[in-house]
Amino acid sequence: MRKHITGFSNPTVKYLRSLRDKKHRRRAGQFLVEGLRLLEDARASGHVPRTLVMAEGREPHDLLARLEAEVLARGGEVIATSPDILSKITGKDNAQSVAGVFDEWDTALARLDRSAAPIWLAAQALRDPGNLGTMLRTCDAVGAGGLILIDDCADPFSAEAVRASMGAVFTVGLAQARWEEFLGWLRGGEGQLVAASLRDAVPYRAAPYAAPCFILVGNESQGLPEAYEAACDLRVTMPMRGRADSLNAAVAGAVLAYEVLASLAP
Amino acid sequence: MRKHITGFSNPTVKYLRSLRDKKHRRRAGQFLVEGLRLLEDARASGHVPRTLVMAEGREPHDLLARLEAEVLARGGEVIATSPDILSKITGKDNAQSVAGVFDEWDTALARLDRSAAPIWLAAQALRDPGNLGTMLRTCDAVGAGGLILIDDCADPFSAEAVRASMGAVFTVGLAQARWEEFLGWLRGGEGQLVAASLRDAVPYRAAPYAAPCFILVGNESQGLPEAYEAACDLRVTMPMRGRADSLNAAVAGAVLAYEVLASLAP
Fold first, then answer.
1. What pTM did the predictor assign?
2. Is the complex ipTM more than 0.90?
3. Which of B137, B257, B139 has its CA nearest to residue B209?
């Protein structure tokens, strides 16, 4: 279905705008993705938006035309509106000329197949959506099965996380769980849990990694709770030659992930 | 000197607030750092603010009292104001209860001593201040001499970059230069320039790194210009097992930096 929207107070505009807010996303079970590049990444991995919102007056574009056709073919909605209204929806002064609404998907642990990959990333209480998206992107790069978000993390469906993931949110596995639930699931099968740690740790280079290896990083300011570290199978430490005793969470996860990749799947 | 400020329209408030803007920072040659933790990191490495702005009504704090004394001892200014005005200055709803104004320092290449460290990071046209700060933090962690910002990068003195650096902006070397200037400086002495690249590259593990090694990463969306890559002494590639062909810039820099660290200074 095609639709024109010209008014700022249109209820659809209000709805789309509300998706910037985590509470509303959760209630609606939908999220908004901005920009043709991300929408094209999504389409390439089989995710077609329910609703496509386009600014009028843009240049014609083959990829966009194909996306539009596919949305309509699947019974979705295509909304044409003014650049101003699209800016209002996305909250950006220089809005992308297109945005799409997707259904959120089930992020239950049970949906993950741990045998699908030798490496997994896990993050506990990760608060920064940019770090979260960057970890999804790293998952894609190292061929990890996906990212497991433990306890209260940033929302993987926020615009910032989706953007930082460079589309990896659509291609790598994603799960959300409380710590106890995660640990129960992990111990119900094979899996080595590895923490970056300062306590009782071995050097991260050439540590005895084993597949499937779950690399766990902690909160940006607190790190991992001591009890969580103690529950890990392996604690590894990276050289810290300076004044600080920790790396950015997404950086620590990536340095470890590349080390595990070299060790397990060279 | 101690001063109380109670009015939002006070010229000092306007000045401090203007430091959120790069253009004004440049003109004033000063930048604003928020939060006691960062101010304490700065003090520990010999940087004392010219001006300290504190919200009234906070709990007494030993570290803050010491900092205040040191600012006054060096002829600086201590401003007490309301939490609301401090929020207006920093632009944050939940402002830290203290902020400090520092003089920017000289970031000329000539100030760097390349023999001081085996590893250096360099970034070209890096636009994200969070990535920039994260790279400074990584420099601290791997014992790098510092970060060289090439062409038009984000401002290392922005609040976001300083925060992401976790104080490393005060401890690691920092330089800014155009590409031609950087290359001239580099070739005026010893130094191996290494790029993360997809073209004509060798695997990054166990590549022939040599100190002082300058690790160069490119712009977040464009990567490095081809001519810049061609000017490098070594092009290395990291495994990319997924759909994407690149990592987050700060992540790529860190994975390479840890590899070079293992190779040169194990």
1. 0.95
2. yes
3. B257
